Amino acid sequence: MTTKARTRRATENGTRFDAVVVGAGFAGMYMLHRLRGLGFTARVFEAGSGVGGTWYWNRYPGARCDVESMQYSFSFSEELDQEWIWSEKYSPQPEILAYANHIADRFDLRRDIVFDTRVTKATFDEAGKRWHIETDRGDKVSARFCIMAVGCLSAPNRPRFEGIDDFKGPIYHTGEWPHEGVDFTGLRVGVIGTGSSAIQSIPIIAKQASQLTVFQRTATWSVPAWNERLSPDYLKQVKAHYPELRAKARARPTGFYFPFNIKPALEASAEERDKQYEESWARGGLPFLGAFGDLLFEKEANDTIADFARRKIRGIVKDPAVAELLCPENVFGCKRLCVDTGYFETYNLPHVKLVDVSRTGIERFSAGGIVVDGVQYPVDAIVSATGFAAMTGSYDKITIAGRSGLTLAEKWRVGPRTYLGLASAGFPNLFMITGPGSPSVLASMIQAIEQHVDWLVDCFGHMRDIGASTIEARVEDEDAWVEHVNEVSKVSLRSTCSSWYVGSNTPGRPRVFMPYIGGFPIYVQKCNEVMSSGFDGFVLEGATKTNKPPQVRLTERWRAPLDIEVMSPAAVAAGRVPVV
Ligand code: N01
Q1: Which residue of 90, 202, 253, 577 shows the fewest CB atoms closer than 10 Å?
Q2: Ligand 1 centroid vs 502 CA: distance in angstroms?
Q3: Ligand 1, CB cutoff 6 Å, lining residues
């Protein structure tokens, strides 16, 4: 829900660009910066009124990142690393948005970004070898390259509950929160969902609401954040060694660094395990899953961390029946792990109620509440924390027509098919940043974005060097990659449950494990090899010079050795790279 009127401007017609970028989140902004470095002309179209993407839209109470701030930021500029000051271990949304705005100003990006404009159509002209791009403001421009920087979690999932239009109060989606904020003081609020957005917002909404009712379909695993302010000493110490930290992060399966214990839980005694879990719990956050190396591979190992976390929930929540409802039954960390501040404690408050909708779903909305199993729960406002049509939802919203008019949505009806999560056969010169089939959401997003953009810039530079007009993924290589992404996912327990990773949160979508789970550096190695071989797996057309080895312009920093401490060659060969 945006509350700002769209800026008035003249329609842009017929302009020819080297590249059009869709989206001005971190991906679109960095892409623009690097395209300019290549000397390319570029236009970025952004649906929002400002930069920031995810962090522009997700303004719900308590929104913050759960990768530590010192690493949840761009790493391409050491000056930027040194000058920006994060205030907390996990940055709140307004600070991340301020950082996004700082990037836009510092690198003078806004003059090539058109806001309040949604791209509706992108059509490949096979004869002219150009993409024709149309927007909801009537713009019609063309570009050699079309780059989708649309984000992985940006198309809200809004279940059509029966009677939704009968409800008299406001319904907010966490992913499109009103910019002026919402004051729930004195109101009876219903929250649907218990994923990351709900976990973060529930404790804060509970502070305002007179009555809070949470409708839970699947209990969630959550680890305390132990968020804190960052001291000047700590900042100084990290900044003194920032390049080393960034390099260590790039060599990690997740693209961010934290202490990781590679030892298998099943080789530790019960006492050793508990000690390790206590220490990791005290450190908090996503690294809790790094307590042992086999937690996402062996169900028996996973049971030990799940038992420990259930004990924690039972220790926090005073009402035993509520505690049991809050104890998940699925694999620990199978769905995206949540990181909270006072989530479970919130259920000790007398005005907070938990309603189980796992067996009997939400029946309908009524004028004044939500009905489950014939019982009406009165609410004045509803917060739909129901997540996103992940990974492909934003692509579905645009009619992207490639060769012979085939649309990407048609091609992906059976699940997304990409080569390296960067390109899709039949769509020459169309690229995705952090597309399905790349580590994306299983890595630190900003690092995943930077690696893709750097690779693309080296690709475009090479095409210019050899005079190539188009580049397109080869079907056989795409098929092999899709197969590999699928095979690797089966090694992990992550593939065993219903989650947005497999698209099962959105009715009607095929079940496909969408992100690449083989580990960020292994994926990066593959991208580097593809590039070094003259873009193996791609067809380059129109080259006037031989396809000599490409010049490495930006990808040098990604040519990092594997972190053997965490990823032994044997583990890599077996596809058992621990990812949190
Ligand atoms: O969405 P979700 P999210 N009836 O899909 C429930 C990132 N993120 O916005 O599990 C009843 O996780 C659904 O139930 P179930 C992060 O990667 C990061 O919270 O499908 N309930 C689930 O409980 C995260 O994973 C940060 O059974 C329904 C909830 O709604 C991702 O974004 C912060 C329902 C949706 O949870 C998405 O998180 C926020 C229905 N019909 C988000 N439909 C940080 O960096 C859905 N649900 C900290």
Answers
A1: 90
A2: 13
A3: 65-66, 153, 159, 174, 192-198, 200, 215, 217-218, 336, 339, 357, 361-362, 385-388, 441, 500, 505
